[in-house]
Amino acid sequence: MNLFADALAWLTDPANWTGPFGIPTLTLAHLTYTLLALVLACAVAAPAGWAIGHTGHGRSFAVALAGAARALPSLGLLAFLVLVLGVGLKEVATVVVLVLLAIPPILAGAYAGIDAIPRGTLDSARGVGMTGWQRLWRVEVPLGLPLLLGGVRGASLQVVSTVMIAAFIGLPNLGTYLIAGQRLGDYARMLAGAILVAALALVLDGVLAVAQRLAVPRGVRMATAAVPA
Amino acid sequence: MIEFEGVTKRYSSASGAAVDDFSLVVPRGTTTVLVGSSGCGKTTLLRMVNRMVDPTRGRVLLDGEDVAGRDPVALRRSVGYVMQNSGLLPHRTAAQNVAVVPRLAGRDRAAARSRSLELLELVGLDPELADRYPAQLSGGQQQRVGVARGLAAEGDVLLMDEPFGAVDPVVRGELQHELLRIQRELSRTILFITHDVEEAFLLGEEVVILSRGGHVEQRGTPADVLAAPANEFVAAFVGAHRRDRRLRVDERDGVRLVVDGRDRPLGVLTDEAP
Amino acid sequence: MRWALDNLGLLGQLTIAHARLAIVPVAVALLLALPLGALAHRVPPLRGTLLGLAGLLYTIPSLALFVLLPPMLGIPYLSDLNVIIALTLYALALLVRTVTEALESVPPDAVASARAIGYNGTSIFLAVQLPLAGPVLLAGLRVATVSTVSMVTVGALIGVSSLGSLFTDGLQRRIVPEVLTGVVLTALLALLLDVLLQLAGRVLMPWLRAERAVATA
Question: Which GO molecular function annotations are given, in alphabetical order (chain B) (predicted)?
């Protein structure tokens, strides 16, 4: 446990909290890449997933995409894109890989959210005379939101993890402590970096978990909480 | 008035017709009940009226106008529709669920809300329940909200797709009598479908007995059908041969009792007007 | 293609090392997940705790776990064992949830009727619950296998050889075909194991094909 004590000492050393490689700067960099990738991926994947869920077309495409994305190693994609685009564009390469990784789970969440709505509910929305757009915005999107956010949650884990890997192509973020530590033989620094990334991932997941819970409409929460007599 | 003119529906070219050359007139202000087992095409017929289903051949007319020429969304807003499992939106309260219909028709929030509360009172829902979510209501209460939402449509046609099929018999009885009361007040043009003959006889001024493919076996008042079943199918379906349908009068200690074929007393015969 | 043909020996070695680093964790995780998942299914108060812990574990990025584990367990940082244990924990986190949900997917009527005709606890689990939980279990096992194959590559960053070494090496020496070969072989290995699992499922659960035939008829 000596190593953990060293890591703790490293984490509490004020010298490591300032400068371009200080903890706040690198945490912010890690978070910025993560959120940018999630926002871009949502902008693409949520409408696409809603379209699949609303029309019922393209479901097998979404399933195949999710399977393929799981099989592709993110480190390999990153290395490939950096070599193809050139090291000068490593930021672009990283964001592209992050967005590609985040799209499948968000897409799946968006269409699964609509898929999980009982047929009768959608049927009656049609029956009272809602247009396709009204059904989408007033029924399908709000009722499907919790599962969509579940998809975002899954994507955020992958993205936080892959941003860390991007430190190996020279992007400064919390993964940088790991590489620097490895080079210097400074295990305390590596451990501190690992602890920081794990903490960031847990906090982000926690925030999204709360958002997911809040996204469940009140009436639906009651349905799952207490079955009426 | 609803008119079906020789409508046929095939869901795919390979399968047989779900409904084959069906014609019917539902006069304004009356209740017509389509009754038949599952697979007789009754739900298909009902859903043709608000264009949830379009016929492959034939026409459906509402007050003389072919529905095929009307915008489906506008049509559905004007026609009331009540479904078996209420079909309420789970993220809206009872009052909001009913208010959806006037809101879609362009009324403002306050007007929609007061109309909604008025209708919930009409269907006998405790006003305290208006702001509850469907999940907080019993099956019977949800169904009342479903009926209120159906009545919220501005047109006079009300389509009811086995609305009381999923509630227990006691509550079903209450809801059926509630519907009879409401219909006496409002005189809507109701097309009601069920697989329950008793329900059809109770609610329908005219009943239409269907077999597979929307084939009409017999139509008429409940009394006509029971008195003279058109064929064996109808007789079996309405249970004309059933011993409990064979009633007779039995006098006991000067009181005239009505008893069924198994000698179970059903009631007392009087000369008083009901 | 040329690059791949010139390095067949290396590729064979790395593929075998990669397969070992992926298969061992998934197999060990499955063996551990069955009793844990059964426990979570049978003892509802434990369900939340176990699944919560699994979720928490799954949240930690793999690269961070490679660094966190050695000082905790007293194992060397640069070792196959480190990668195998870390990936076992990931697969376990996925599979405990899968086993629990798979057991929940078994119709209670089937279990009740098995009990009524005289099966006892263990035999119900082995003869009724496990086979009926099979489809959900297989789906989860496939996900765990494919993602483990992909995650093995991250081990290359701490120096553990696998197909991921082609990424780090190719990046350093700027050989695009090397990186590309690594991506393709990793995906192919994942696909191969996935197909094998599907075949195993078909052999072990012959009744599913009959059900599907009835459903589509």
Answer: ABC-type quaternary ammonium compound transporting activity; ATP binding; ATP hydrolysis activity
Report the alpha-carbon distance of residue A127 to residue B88 in Å, rounded.
11
C217 occurs within a structural domain: no
For residue A38, name the pLDDT band (cuts at 50, 70, 90): very high
Tokens (6 digits) for B51? 């264009």
Give the pLDDT score at A228. Answer: 40
Give, in degrees to the nearest 5, the angle at Cα C206 between C205 and C210. 125
Number of domains in chain C: 1
CATH number of the domain encompassing residue C120 = 1.10.3720.10
**Contact between B73 and A125 using a beta-carbon 8 Å cutoff:** no
Residues of chain C in contact with residue A169, where contact means CB-CB under 8 angstroms, are: 171
Mean pLDDT over each residue of chain A, to the nearest integer = 89
Residues of B in contact with A128 (CB under 8 A): 76-77, 81, 100-101, 104, 149, 153
* Range of weakest confidence among A66-70, A198-202, B225-229, C172-176: A66-70
Q: What is the pTM of this model?
A: 0.86
- Find the domain containing C69 and state its range: 2-212
Residue B91: closest CA among chain A residues belongs to which residue? A219
Query: What domains can be seen in chain A, in order of their start residue?
Result: 2-218 (1.10.3720.10)
Query: At what angle are helices C165-173 and C176-204 packed, to 10 degrees?
Result: 170
- Predicted ipTM of the assembly: 0.85
Q: Is the distance from CB of A20 to CB of A119 less than 8 angstroms?
A: no
A119 vs B: CB within 8 A: no
